[in-house]
Amino acid sequence: MGRVTRPPVYEFFSFLNRKCHSLGLVSNRPFAAAGRSVPLLRAGLIAGIVVTAALYPLAALTGLGAKATAHAVEQKTDILRTALPAETSYLYAPDGKTVLTMFYEEYRQYTKLSDMSPNIQQAIVAAEDNRFYQHHGVDPKGVARAFVANARSSGVSQGASTLTMQYVRMALRDSAKTPKEVQEATQQTSLRKVKEMRMALDIEKELTKEQILERYLNSAYFGHRAYGIYAASQIFFSKTPATLTPVEAATLAGLVKSPSEYDPITSDQKDATGRRNYVLDNMTRLGFMSPDVAAAYKSEPIQLKLTDPPNDCASIPKKYNSWGFACDYVKNWWSAQPAFGENRLERMDKLRRGGYRIVLSIDPKIQAAAEQNVGAQDNTGSPFANGIVVSEPGTGRVKAMAVNRTYSLDLSQNGPTSNPEADPNVKANYPNTVAPLLGGGTLPGYQAGSTFKMFPMLAALDSGMKLSTSFNAPYTYKSSVYDGWAPSNASGAMTGNQTMWSGFGKSVNTYFVWLEEQVGADRAVRMAEQLGLRWRTDVDKEQASPAKAKKWGSFTLGVSDATPLEMANAYAAVAADGRYCEAIPVLSISNRDGTPATYTTPGGVQREIAKPRCRQVVSADAARAATDAARCPTGDTPAKGSCGGWSTADSVRGTVGRPVAGKTGTTDSTRSAWFAGFTPELAAASFIADPDNPFNAVGDGQSQIPVNAVARTLRDALKGQPVRQFTPPSDEIVG
Length: 735
Known about the structure:
Blueprint: H1 8-22, E1 26-33, E2 36-41, H2 48-61, H3 66-82, E3 89-92, E4 99-103, H4 118-128, H5 140-153, H6 163-175, H7 179-186, H8 190-206, H9 209-219, H10 229-237, H11 246-255, H12 270-285, H13 291-298, H14 324-335, H15 344-353, E5 357-360, H16 364-375, E6 385-391, E7 398-403, E8 406-407, E9 432-433, E10 446-447, H17 454-462, E11 471-473, E12 496-498, H18 500-506, H19 509-519, H20 521-530, H21 538-544, E13 561-562, H22 564-575, E14 579-581, E15 586-590, E16 598-600, E17 606-608, E18 614-616, H23 620-630, H24 652-656, E19 661-666, E20 673-678, E21 683-689, H25 704-717, H26 731-734
Parallel strand pairs: 3-5, 8-9
Antiparallel strand pairs: 1-2, 3-4, 5-15, 6-7, 6-21, 10-13, 11-12, 14-18, 16-17, 19-20, 20-21
C-alpha cells in the first residue's frame, strides 16, 4: 500500500499540536480540521477571536472560503505583479544635476537591490521574517509561533506576516484608488488575511525572493516621512542605501515594526537601541555576523546624521529663492496638462507620486539678469510689484521669471493690504508672497494698456492691409462703429497723418481705434486668443464673447487684464515670424524609468510632453511687418518705413545695443505701466502695478520702470552673443 500524502494544513496542525502539548495548553478532546482529528486547545485558555485569526486563514487556504476570495485575488494579483509604490518627483535646475526641490506625499526614491548594502537586506530579514528564504509566501511555523505566543499572553504579542505578506499589504495600499480600497487593504479582518495569504503564495510563484525583497524595501515606512530604504537612509543617516553599515541597517530595520515606538529621533533612544540590538542578535542567529561583532555593535550609541528633505516650491534653497515663482508655474502648468490625468486632482497626484525627473527651462544667466533689473527698480517695501518674464521665441520656453518679492509662505512680517475694501487683518503681498504675480495661476493679471495695439495691427496685416496704411488721426475720434465712443490721444502731438510705423511708435489711440474698425474688433480679440491670452474676469469674458467682441472698441487700448507670462509669449510669437508656441516651463520630463514622458495627440501621434508645441498663427510676412513697426517705439530704425520723428521708449535701443522691438503700455491714471520687447533671440514683458489694489495708481513717475527692466535684462542676457538682425518684411506688405 502506497504512502499517504498529508495536506500541508494537517502538517501545520500536527506541528501546532506538538507545540501546544509541550506547553500544557491542550486537552484530549478532538477537533476536526481538514478531515483529520487534532487536539483542541483547552477551553477558555485562548479567546475565540485568537482562534479565528490563527486557524481560519490556514484552513481557508485549502478550500474554506476560497470561493469568496478567488475573484478578488485574481483581480489583485495582476496589480501586485507590476505595482510600483509612490515615488518622489524631482525638479532640477537646467544643468539636470542641481536639485531645486521635490514633490511628494511619500518621500521615496526607488532603489534596486543591487544598489543596497547587503547589511540592510540581512537586517530586514532578521527583523521581520527569519524564515524568508525557506517559506513560499506563508510560513506555517511562524503562524504557529504567533498563535502560541498570543495564547500565552492572552492577547496579540506576535504577528505571523511574512515579508511577502507585508509586501502584498503595502502593494494593495499603494495601488488603491479610493479610500475604501485603502481600508480594505489594511483592515484587521480574517477575510483580509485570507486574501493576503492567497496572494502571497501567488506572488512567490511570479517573483523571485530578491524581487520581493527589493519591492518590500522600497515600500516599507520607516517614520519621519521616509518611505522606502532610500528615503530612510537619507533622513536618518544622510547617505545612500549602498553605504549603510550593519549597525545603521539594524537601526533602520528595527523601525519598520513600529516607526513611532522605536523612533531614535524624538525618543530617548532606549527603545530604539533595544530594538536595534534585537535585530543584531537575530542577525547573529542567522549567521550574518559573529557574536563578538554583534556585541561590539550593541555597545555603540545610535549616531544619527539627519536630513530634512525639501518638499514643494517653498523649500527651494535660499540661493535660488526667486526661482520659486518659476517652480510655482511648473505646478500650475502641470495641473493643466491632460497627459497627467483627467482633472487637476489626478494630475497633481501624478506629480507627487509619479517619480518624475523634471528639468526647469529657466536659464541661470537670464534669470540673474532679470532678478537684478527688477530688484534695482524698487525694494520689496513697496506695494507696487515690478515683475518680468522672459520667453524664448520658437520654443515658448520660459527663460526667466522675476519679481521684486521674496518667495515665501511666511507673511508674518507683511503689512496690511493697500486695498481699502479688504479686511484690515488681511496681509499685503509684500515683502513675502507665493501668489502667482507673473502669471500661470488663477490671478487675472493687470490691464496691459497699449501693448494690446499689437493684436489689431497683426490682424490687419494678416488680412492684407499694408504697413503704410495711413489715417489722419485727430486728437479725439468719435466712432460710428462703437456707438459713438470717442477716445482721445495722450498728447496733441499725435494729431495728424499716421501709418502703422508712426501710429505704433507714438502709440496713437485714435489711429488704432480706426484701424481696429477696419479689421474688426472681434478679429483683434481672436488674434489675442490665438497668441495665448485668456480672459479671467467676468467683464473680459463677456466682452470677448462672440456676441460682444465686435463692439469691444476699447480692446485695442488694453482695458483687458493680462499677465506678463502671456504678453512675453505673445510677443515671442511675433519675433518667431508668427509662429506661436505654448508657454512651457521645462526642458525635459522623464518617467521613473528614465524614458521621456509622452502624451498622445487627438490625431493619435505620440509626443514628448516637454517638447515645444507650436503653430503658425499669422503669416511670416505679417509678423515681420509688425516687427518692423514695433522697432519704432524703442528708438530703433525700421527696415522699410518712418517712425515719424519720436517714440514712447526711445532709450531702449541704446540700452540693449542691438536691434530691438517692443511696445509701451499705460492705463487710465497710470494705474499700471508695461513694456513688452523682443530681439530675434528673446522676448520679455514687464509690468508695475499694485496686485492688492488695482486702483492704487503707480503714477507717471514710475512708468519707465518696466521699460528699463526689459531693456536692461535683454542687454545683460545677450551680452557676448553675436548680434542678430530682424528679417525685413516684403515690399508687398509694406505697400
